[in-house]
Amino acid sequence: MPPRHLIIGAGTAGLNCVRTIREEDGGASEITLVAAERPYSRMVLPYYLDRSIAESHVFTATAATLATWKVKTHIGRKAAGLNPQANALTLDDGTTLEYDDCLIATGSRAVKAPVPGADLPGVHSFWTLEQARAVVAGIAPGSHVVMVGAGFIAFTILNSILSLGARLTLVEIAPRILPRMVDDAGAALVETWLKKHGVKILTGATLVRIEEARGKQRLRFKKGPDLLADLLIMATGIKPNLEWLQGSGIRMNHGILVDDHLRASVPNVYAAGDVAEGKDGVTGLPAVHAIEPTAMEHGRVAGANMAGRDVTYRGSLNMNIVEVCRLDVASFGAWDDPNAETFTGLRPERSAYRKLCWSGDRLTGAIIIGQAGDVWTTNDVGMLKGLVQTAVRLGVWKEYLRRNPFDLKPAFIASRATGQLLPQTILGRPSRAPEIPTTVSP
Ligand SMILES: Cc1cc2nc3c(=O)[nH]c(=O)nc-3n(C[C@H](O)[C@H](O)[C@H](O)COP(=O)(O)OP(=O)(O)OC[C@H]3O[C@@H](n4cnc5c(N)ncnc54)[C@H](O)[C@@H]3O)c2cc1C
Question: Is the CATH number 3.50.50.60 carried by domain 123-236?
Answer without folding.
Answer: yes
